[in-house]
C-alpha cells in the first residue's frame, strides 16, 4: 500500500489534480484499493484445486449442503477475519501516517457498500469458475497467474483506468474487471455524477447476474464430470 | 583441477536433467511465457500511460524508465533461472530432504543450487529484453563493448543480490525450522524498489534500501550510472562495477550463512 501511495505522491508532484481527480482523492483511492484488496481473500480456487488433487472433493460432495455453499461460507468467514487482521490495521496506519481516507459524502459511502458486495461477488464467481476448471484439467499451473495478473492490472486496482488510452478503456469497460476494483473505489471518492454512477452500478449488477448464470451452468457440467482421484 | 572438471560435468548433468524435465511439459512453459509477457507487458504499459498523463517521474522519462524496468526484469529472469531452489528451502529443511545432499560426496551448496535449473526463467528474460531494447532504442543508446560489459555486470550483480537475499531468508529455516515462504513478499518488494526510482520514497527508506537491504543496487543505481543520472551519493567507481561487487559480497555472505546453518541441520524429527 505504501509503495503505491508514494508512487502517486511522486507522480502528482506539485499538481493538485489530474483527469479531474485531486491528489487527495487519488491517495484515498490507493488506500481504499489496498483495503478492499485485503478483504478479497479467496480460498475457493485453491480449495477446489487441492480437494480435486487429493480426491477429498468426494467427501465434500457427500455433505448434505451445496458444495459451493461451503466454499462461499468459508470465504466470507475468511473475509471477516481479514477485516480485523489486515483491513482495519491498514486503515489505521493510513490514517496515522498518510491521511484519513474519507468518502466523498455519506451517500457515497452508503452506495459504496452494495457496490463492494457486488464486486466481491464478481471476483468470487470468477475465482470459483476458474477453480472449476480443475475438475477437468487437474493442474492449472501458470493459468492461475495469468488470471491473477489480469485481475490486478485491468481492474484499476493499481492504476485507475481513466489513465489508460481511450480505446483500451473502451474495451476494458465492457469486461467485468473494472467492476471489481475501479467502480467501488470511484464511487467512494465521488468520481462519477449520479447518472453515470447509477449506470455503472447497473452494468455491475448485470455482470454479476451474467457471471452467476454462467457459474450455475458450468457448475452443473463440471460436477457431473468430476474425477475423483486417490482413495 | 580434476575436481573442478568433475564438478563441471556433474553440474552440466544436473542442468541437462532439469531442462529435460521442463521440456517434458511444453504447455506449462508456454503458459508461463504468456503469463510473464502479460505481467511485464501490461505493467510497463501502465507506467507508460501514467507518464503520458503526468510527464517524467522524478526526472526519469519513459525511455529511461523502460531501460530501468528492462534491466530489472532481466536480472529477475536470471535469478529465477538460477536460484529457484531457495524458494522451497524451508520444505527441504523441515522434511529432512537435505539428508540426500549430505550423503553424497559433493559440496552441499553446489548440489542445492543445481537442484533445479529453471528454464522457465527464460519466459521472464524475453519480455525483459524487449522492454530493455525499447528503452535502448528510444534513448539512442550506443552499445559499445564497454556498455555491453556494464549491462552484463549490472544484470549479473542484480541477479546475485536477488538470489543472495533469497538464500539468506531461506537459510533462516535452519534455525527456526519452519517452512515460512517469503517469496511473494520479496517479489513485491523487488518490484516496488527496482522498477522505478527510489527517490519517490521518503529519505529514510532510500537510505534503508541502499545500505541495509541493498535493493537499489539491483537495477536503479547501475541504470543511473550507465545513463549518467545524478545520484544522491558519490562513489568514484562506475556503478555497474559497484553493483556487481555488492552482489558478489551479498551472495558470499549468504553462502556462509547457508554453511553455518547446515551445521545446525538435524534432519526430520520423525
Give your account of this protein's structure.
The complex is a heterodimer of chains A (231) and B (270). Chain A has helices at 2-12, 23-39, 44-54, 57-62, 67-97, 106-137, 143-154, 166-174, 182-189, 194-225; strands at residues 17-18, 21-22. With 231 residues, chain A is an all-alpha fold. Chain A has one domain. The model of chain A has no long low-confidence stretch (mean pLDDT 82). Chain B is mostly helical and 270 residues long. Chain B has one domain (2-263). Helices cover 72% and strands 0% of the residues of chain B. Classes of the chains: A mainly alpha (231), B mainly alpha (270). At the A-B interface, helix 1 and helix 7 of A face helix 2 of B.
Q: Notable features of this structure?
A:
heterodimer, A: 231 residues, mainly alpha, two-stranded antiparallel sheet, 10 helices, 2 strands, 2% strand, B: 270 residues, 12 helices, globular
Biggest beta sheet summary of chain A: 2 strands, antiparallel
Secondary-structure element series of chain B: HHHHHHHHHHHH
**Mean pLDDT across every amino acid position of chain B:** 86
Q: Can you give the helix content of chain A as a percent range?
A: over 70%
Shape of chain A: elongated
* Largest β sheet strand count, sense and barrel closure of chain B: none
Low-confidence stretches of chain B: none
Oligomerization status of the protein chains:
heterodimer
Short account of what is shown:
Chain A has 231 residues and is an all-alpha fold. Chain A has ten helices and two strands; from the N terminus they run αββααααααααα.
Amino acid at each position: 500500500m505504501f509503495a503505491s501511495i508514494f508512487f502517486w505522491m511522486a507522480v502528482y508532484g506539485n499538481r493538485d489534480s489530474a483527469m479531474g481527480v485531486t491528489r487527495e482523492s487519488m491517495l484515498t483511492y490507493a488506500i481504499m484499493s489496498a483495503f478492499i484488496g485485503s478483504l478479497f481473500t479467496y480460498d475457493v480456487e485453491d480449495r477446489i484445486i487441492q480437494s480435486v488433487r487429493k480426491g477429498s472433493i468426494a467427501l465434500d460432495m457427500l455433505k448434505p449442503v451445496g458444495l459451493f455453499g461451503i466454499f462461499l461460507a468459508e470465504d466470507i468467514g475468511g473475509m471477516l477475519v481479514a477485516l480485523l487482521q489486515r483491513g482495519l490495521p491498514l486503515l489505521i496506519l493510513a490514517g496515522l501516517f498518510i491521511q484519513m481516507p474519507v468518502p466523498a459524502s455519506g451517500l457515497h459511502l452508503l452506495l459504496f457498500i452494495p457496490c463492494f458486495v457486488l464486486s466481491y461477488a464478481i471476483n468470487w464467481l470468477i475465482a470459483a469458475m476458474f477453480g472449476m476448471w480443475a475438475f477437468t484439467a487437474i493442474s492449472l499451473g501458470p493459468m492461475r497467474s495469468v488470471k491473477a495478473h489480469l485481475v490486478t492490472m485491468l481492474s484499476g486496482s493499481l492504476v485507475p483506468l481513466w489513465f489508460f488510452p481511450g480505446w483500451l478503456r473502451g474495451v476494458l469497460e465492457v469486461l467485468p474487471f473494472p467492476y471489481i476494483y475501479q467502480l467501488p473505489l470511484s464511487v467512494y471518492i465521488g468520481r462519477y455524477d449520479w447518472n453515470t454512477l447509477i449506470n455503472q452500478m447497473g452494468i455491475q449488477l448485470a455482470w454479476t447476474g451474467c457471471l452467476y448464470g454462467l457459474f450455475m451452468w458450468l457448475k452443473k457440467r463440471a460436477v457431473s464430470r468430476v474425477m475423483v482421484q486417490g482413495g | 583441477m580434476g575436481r573442478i572438471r568433475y564438478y563441471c560435468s556433474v553440474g552440466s548433468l544436473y542442468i541437462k536433467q532439469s531442462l529435460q524435465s521442463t521440456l517434458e511439459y511444453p504447455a506449462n512453459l508456454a503458459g508461463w511465457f504468456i503469463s510473464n509477457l502479460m505481467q511485464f507487458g501490461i505493467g510497463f504499459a501502465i507506467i507508460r500511460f501514467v507518464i503520458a498523463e503526468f510527464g517524467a517521474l522524478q526526472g526519469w522519462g519513459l525511455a529511461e524508465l523502460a531501460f530501468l524496468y528492462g534491466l530489472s526484469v532481466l536480472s529477475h529472469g536470471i535469478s529465477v533461472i538460477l536460484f529457484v531452489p531457495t524458494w522451497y528451502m524451508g520444505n527441504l529443511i523441515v522434511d529432512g530432504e537435505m539428508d540426500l545432499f549430505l550423503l553424497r560426496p559433493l559440496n552441499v551448496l553446489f548440489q542445492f543450487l543445481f537442484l533445479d535449473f529453471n528454464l522457465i526463467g527464460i519466459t521472464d528474460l524475453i519480455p525483459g529484453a524487449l522492454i530493455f531494447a525499447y528503452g535502448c532504442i528510444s534513448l539512442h543508446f550506443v552499445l559499445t563493448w564497454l556498455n555491453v560489459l556494464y549491462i552484463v555486470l549490472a544484470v549479473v550483480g542484480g541477479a546475485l543480490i536477488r538470489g543472495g537475499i533469497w538464500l539468506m531468508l531461506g537459510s533462516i529455516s535452519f534455525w527456526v525450522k519452519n517452512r515460512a515462504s517469503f517469496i511473494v513478499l520479496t517479489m513485491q518488494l523487488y518490484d516496488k524498489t527496482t522498477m522505478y526510482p527510489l527517490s519517490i520514497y521518503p529519505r529514510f527508506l532510500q537510505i534503508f534500501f541502499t545500505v541495509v537491504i541493498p535493493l537499489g543496487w539491483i537495477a536503479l543505481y547501475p541504470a543511473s550510472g550507465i545513463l549518467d543520472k545524478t545520484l544522491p551519493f558519490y562513489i568514484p567507481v562506475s556503478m555497474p562495477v559497484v553493483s556487481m561487487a555488492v552482489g558478489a559480497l551479498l551472495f558470499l555472505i549468504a553462502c556462509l550463512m547457508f554453511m553455518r546453518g547446515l551445521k545446525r541441520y538435524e534432519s526430520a524429527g520423525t
